[in-house]
Each structure stands twice: as C-alpha cells, then as structure tokens.
Amino acid sequence: MIEPASPPAREHLLHLNHIGGHHRSFIDLFHRWFGLDASIGGVGAVNFRRLVRAEQLMFATLDDDVRGFVIVALARTMRGRRTAGIFMRPQSCFFSGPRGWIKRQLFRSLRRVPLVSTLSLLPFEAVPQLRGVATDAVHDPQLWDVVDDDDAIDEALAARVLAEAHGRPVLTFLGTVNAGKGFGHLAAIIAADPTLTEKLCVVIAGHVQKDSAGDADAAAKAGAIVWDRRTSDSELAALYRASSAVWACYHPDYDQASGIFGRAVQRGRRPVIREGAVIVGSYVERLGIDAVRLSEDPRQAAATLIAELTGQEIVRTADPAVLREWRREFIRAVDGGIGAGHRAYDKL
Q: Which strands form 83-87's sheet, in the order they lie side by side?
C-alpha cells in the first residue's frame, strides 16, 4: 500500500535578498526571538512559491525588493496569510520626482491592505508624514539588541588602544570607511586643525573604500590610527570599550537609523552626530543623552570635538529600561505582523 504524500511542512521565514552589511545580525535576531529561518535571494519563480506558502513570513528589509515584497504580500493576502516587512527608508516615499510619487502612492495603498504590515524603522515622532505610508513604527534593533548581553571583548586590543592614546580621549570611526558615513568630513576636520590628533586619539577601524582612500592616507599622516580591514565583533566591542565618543556624523543623504549609533547608545558612549540630523537627533532628544553635534564647517567642528571630548567628565547615557521597552514594542509589532501568536513573549 502506497502511503499518501504528506503535505510540505509550513515554514517560518525571514526573507533577505543578500546577507551583506547588517543582515547577518538580523538573521541571528529573528531566529533567536521569533524562530524564523533565513530565506536568501531574489523573489524568483522558486522563491515566490516558497514565500507564498510559508506559515509566517517577514521581509527583513523590504527596500531591497519593493516589487517582490508587494507581489508576495498580495498573493499571501488572497490566501489569508499575514506578511510583514521592515521599511528601512520609508522617507524615500517623499523624495521629489516621479519615483518618489509612485512609491508614495504604492505604500499608501498597501497600508490599507488587510494582513500586510509595513514597519517603519524610523520613528513617526521624528517624521510624522510616515504614518501615511507605514502601518507602524519600530525602533532599530541595533538600539536595543545587546542591552542585556555580555560582550565578548578583545581585552588586549582595548588595552592597546588606551596605551596608544596616552591619556587622550578616544574618538573612533567604525565600520566601512566611505563618503556616505561622513568620512570626508572627518578627514577635513583633521586637516583643518593640526592639533586635533595631539588632543584626541582618532581611531579609524574598517575597510577603506576606494573613494575614501586618499582621505584615509591623509588622516594617517596627520596622526590618526587607521586599520584598513574588517573588524571582528570582539574587536568592535573592544573599540567601543576604549572610546570616549563614536562617529555617527553621516552625510546628509544618510539620515536614517544607524547601527553604529545604536551600539554607541547601548554601550554608553557619546555619539558624534551632524547638526540638523533628523533621525539620530530625535533619538538623542528622546533618550536625553549627551551627543557631540558638529557643524559642516571643518574648523568649527574640530573646535567642538576638542572642547566637548576634553572638557566633560560626566556623560548622560541611555536608560536601559527605555531600551528594553523598545525591544518589547518591536516584538509586539512583529508578532502582530507575522501572526506569531506571542511566541516571543516568554523571552522578554
């Protein structure tokens, strides 16, 4: 007797187009909190069927494939299944020109579709118009994901940085070194005041992209420490440990949540931000933390860095209780979006 084929197991999926950048941390987080397994690749014919049939489905960054997200979400809605996606850059719906208009109309319409949740990673309080294109807002996981974790720290590296600082406050630039993260501005600040590296120990740790290679060389010649390589998690933790302040003064076009900023907040280090930055500026205000705000003028910014980092001993840091509440809000929103049945609540 031939046994009837059993139906395929319903999957619980986190979909990502690729695993570069912060996506690996997303994979770990969503597996840990929601039991979702990674689905990686474009929404092609094979992936489409798998995604539509999944029991639960979360798009880690719907911005990577807006068309794929919309098609899959609508197909799942017709089958009575929920779909959620994190909207990393919802402000792009309000860019000028035809693309911004089309995107705005699309997400305004999608917001009214039952069973589809688009979760803005930017707070509505900072950009109220986002309420029209997203169903809910959540706080970037990198603002709360390690608040209760014990970091594995490269203690030798932390000691080495402090030894090389010789008592100077340490300012670190972490992660990929490029123009979008404001490296050109940091290089201009170092060039504008030759005494800056005498008063501050500037550490630049991350792979230097071609567009920033000249600036990195100039910064090194001016006295900055440049490590042109990818840093491990334990090395990053050591650099946070040794730092007085962490660079998050990004290009004006990069006005969005930042993992470097979020980790600085969680680890009690002063973020260095751009004057007029809407997103990180709103978090600084809401959390009541001390940040260093820099103008576009390199000479003035150099003076601000020196005055702020050499003159203030007591620094206001984030209340961990607030960050834990943001974690709870994130879990509730994702639970509702994918229909998890509150399975993650027992981990709170």
A: 37-40, 12-16, 56-59, 83-87, 116-120, 136-137
CA–CA dist 319, 328 (Å, integer) = 15
Cα dihedral 302→307→308→313 (10° resolution):
150
- Residue 47 phi/psi, 5-degree rounding, is -65, -35
pLDDT higher than 90, residue 297: yes
Q: pTM (2 decimals)?
A: 0.87
- What are the tokens at 118? 């688009």
Task: Over range 216-231, report the average pLDDT.
Answer: 95
Return the DSSP state at 6. Answer: P
Using N-to-C axis directions, what is the helix angle for 320-338 and 23-34, rounded to 10°? 80
How long a stretch of residues is the chain?
A: 348
H-helix or E-strand spanning residue 227 = strand 225-227
Helix axis angle, 259-266 to 233-242, nearest 10°: 60
Lowest mean pLDDT among 15-24, 108-117, 200-209, 215-224: 15-24
10 Å CB burial of residue 77 (0-12, 13-18, 19+) is middle
| Confidence band of 9 (pLDDT split at 50, 70, 90) | low
> How many Cβ atoms sit within 10 Å of the Cβ of residue 178?
20
The widest CA-to-CA distance across the chain, in whole angstroms, is 86
More confident residue, 311 or 318: 318
Helix (H, G, I), strand (E, B) or coil at 63: helix
